[in-house]
Amino acid sequence: MPDPNLGTGGPRTPVTMSVLGVGDFVPRRTTGELFVRGNIAYTTTWNNGTASSPFYIWDVSGDPTLIDSVRVANASTLGDIVTTPDGAYLVVATEYSQGSIVIYSLADPRKPQLVSRFSNAETFAGVHTAEVGLVNGKPYAFLSVDPAGTLAAKLVIVDLSNPAAPQQVFSKFIGRPYVHDTFVRDGLLFLGLWNDGVAIWDIGGGGKGGTPSSPVELGRVQTVNGHVHNIWWLKDPVTGSNRYAFIGEESPATGSSSAGDIHVVDVSNMSAPREVAFYTVPGAGTHNFSVDEPNGILYAAYYNGGVRALDVRGDLGTCTDAQKSTPTNSTTPLCDLTKMGRELGIGLLDRGNPVYIWGVQYVNGSVFASDMLGSIWKMRPVSRP
Amino acid sequence: MRIHFSLALSFVSLAWLVAPRGAYAQRPDEHAGMAGMSMPDSAGPSRWHVMAQAIPVLTHAAHTAGGADLTEGYLAQSVLMTRGSLWRGHAQLDATLNGEGLTMTRGELSTGGFGEGYVDRRHPHAYLHELVLTGVGSFGPFNYSASAGRGFAPFGTDDPMMRPFEKYPLNHHLAQILERGLIAGAMRVGPAIVEGATFGGDEPTSPSAMPRLRRFGDSWSMRATLLPRPGTELQASYARIESPEQASGFGLDQRKRSASVRMISRDGSRYALAEWASTAEWDGDRNVEAFAYESALAEAAATVGPIGVAVRLEQTGRPEEERLADPFRTPRPASDLAITGITRWRVGTLALTLPSVTHGAVRGYPFVELARLSARSTVATSVFSPERFYGGGSPWMGSIGFRVRYGPLHARMGRYGVALADSPAIRALGVSADAPHAHQH
Fold it and tell me: In B, residues 353-382, which contact A (CB 8 Å cutoff)?
């Protein structure tokens, strides 16, 4: 049965998300990922083609205002940037050679101070993404390492208990042709393995004896068209549901257009996850996600498609035939979140100038987005209907 | 060390293969394709042509990658080539060893150029550039040949090395398919030639890289050629290449098309080529076209007295990819399927080749080339901005150098067996004044 509270009547007209502010500085470089904690935001720069790359520090308490920048040596590109869960440290992923993670103290979040740099032969090709999460109380970083030449891509897990001396605890060649990103929560690790789909590993919370140094695979799923780029496993604090993982498909993008859908996977049985729904935007493709879990709203960066807000509370895998569509190059109809009336808002397409949104984050009642053609946007979240 | 040893061994082996039969130079400093010897020749001796070439060249590139002005020197196009017949003309061997992996590892300044992880530089070619054995025969009006080895798939136009410019055209990776492990067949009836080949789609990942056996047969190409009159050649071709840039096989595929008209005078003193080529990158997972690039090129050359003059006009679309700390390199393999834009390049190139300044077995032909370029994004709002990246100025390049050559100049490169039509060498490439202006074959 469709969710009785939502989306039984077909597509809704999404609202235009209100812009609260935009960065007061546009770097000459291309903006990459962002991470916001409290009133401070950090944005990376991408594809610099130089021996070092800066990241920028913003005060986002009001209009985003540039505070400072930090230059990272031996990095032609900075991808991911994230803090440890306690906010004490900032972790920055660097590409290409010398691939690494660089760890900064956030004793003063406005002035990150270098603590250490973790790099070895296994990360040397480049760290494409780095996620940080707690496993049984200890912080770990999960590094998706680029392929290089004839070397395959690799997952490297690093113990950050001592940020001054990170310790590698696991590595594995994985992904076809690469592992692109991970998501860690409650001792489970979700891996985006591109054309090998999504794998779910027990690393301490799956009940199969897995640990970060000795993971145990629980299940795997192939989403339509592969190209698995990123993942968010939702735990809804209101309904208690932890049934869905959202999978970003990154298909070819041109720097002005893009492609790739959001795939909804039912993980209620971790050993047999299955795709039940999807969301597509004609002419645009998704990149990174952030979920306002208390309100059950997923915000997706959609490159030239701006920011999309989706209602992800309730039953996403049950819908009427009229609410189904067939994804590109598939023959099996799936529930279509747009037809189910789940598309709540669209952001940044009303600005008069094009945007190309890399990352998005919901924090403390605001939605922030990084724009590869600009810098950082601050928006008002959408409301539940 | 192993690479150097293998290269040395290859050179020695090639020399041994050729030496016992005696190097045969049909003319002192040029020879054409194999068409004249494409049929079994029961009466004639085996004939071998050997050419060694190297081009010391100095290039200045203004407003190249990162807005830099650079002047660099290299030993480019260092090759040892042989073509010959075996088994009384029932078979032919084409072999080319290329030393660029040793002499220009960083690549050659070539603003606007791209391919195999190099951008705004031309990449060094594979040490084993070409080693193809071809069997030939005839049946009634049909002449046929079958080829196997590593070399050129039947697609597009001649390799730029045998055309009258030192700098490669920007469309090299749109208009030729080379250094592939292949099996090819060709049939010729009167003025019509049809070729087909199956090969491995993976392009070389380094000069020492060999085609991956498990990729063999995943790609194919076809080419039709019409020879309406001597010296005139019409060509159309099509190719499907699986994942050329991801050796693992999981990258985007390519669908390529090419059409061209080539004309050359009987003595090679006048030459012209007009070509159109396109490459569509295909997302096989979604079964949709992802990106497309197109190129149009016209070039002509003539000898004016002892001077060779050549002009080339080109417009080519180029994918823009993420760059490494070295702005002339891109990640190989890439870490996703995205590009940052498509740049439309326009280039005008003028080349002058002067008479040989040396005599005897080794000759040196001085040349000078000037190229003026412009770059514009095909979509103004792309992430990649050529205006920003190249510093806003108009890029240009100037080169001076010598074509140092031993042995007869090869006329064509990129065809095998009966697909190789009669043709003289292009004289503007450097053929000395004391050489006979003879049409070959």
Answer: 379, 381-382
